[in-house]
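Consider a protein example.
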Amino acid sequence: MIQRHSPIAHAAYHDLMRGLKDEAVSALRGTPTRVERNGRAYWYDSFRVGTDVRKHYIGEDSPDLSARLEAHRAARDDAQARRRNRARLVRLLRAEGFLGLDPTTGSLMAALAGSGVFRLGGTVIGTHAFRLYEGELNLRFDLSQTAQTDDIDIASFERLSLALEDAASPPVQEVLGDFAFAPVPSLQPGKTWRWKQTTGNTLIEFLTPAFGAEEGLRPLPALGVEAQALHHLNYLIAEPIAAAVPYRNGVLVQIPRPERFAIHKLIVADRRRKDDRLKAEKDRMQAAFLIEALAEDRPEDLAEAYEEALDRGPKWRERIAASLSRMPETAARLQEVAG
């Protein structure tokens, strides 16, 4: 049974999202500049530092972003009033039963957002992303679904990171150092894609899609870190969406589209069913829950994501079928929406 938050909570979440998006534009230091590369258009914040002109990436061109930039040119609201309003919305969401983050994770997410990690293409995946579908899909989670994980997974495209010609500031490694994270040694000397908190159990992993045969390490220049390349990840993080973390006055991050997340979980569950059965079971649970919710609210989006995954080849179909063989109700739901 899918349970929902109240209409007031749903409206408050979208007000918070709107406020965070507006804030991202109002924080510009200079002049919004439109740049075209390889047939795509991107916006940058261009400003002078001494005699140098610097550019910070804002986002890919879209009607929504263009409208926000136009509003930025017209007027700026008082920053303190905006922060207070967002904090009020966060308090309302918590009163309505929205999930929060512990202070350590919340402040870390805010610091990563402040350095530009999500603006520069970083996408939160894994359980932290799953929890954030609460606002996007107006879902109320039960205790078994809200188990907090100490792992934070952030994925990004290597090609996008190279093309942006911008970098996180302060650097990601500096931000992680401020939170007592140390690099975990890898098989490649001098390169690390995992960071472990020395004062706790939190582990941060940076990931990127693998387009070739190997799942080795790849650089993410915009973030200044190495990332572990994984197959199937390009499907997951294509066309990510913004999400609001209900912490303090809100934190704007980026997560996968929920329909892609659900189908990807079916693939991941089969990949790890022999090595980590508990995680595979959690993957199937999250997939089943989201598929049921999406079948009610966004059946067309779910059907499109499912069909796209099936069209990617026999190995994709085998993994999806293997997971669905353990989930007869979910399999029937997918067949229903796919027609």
User: Anything to note?
Assistant: The radius of gyration is 20 Å. The mean pLDDT is 89. The first helix runs from residue 7 to 26.
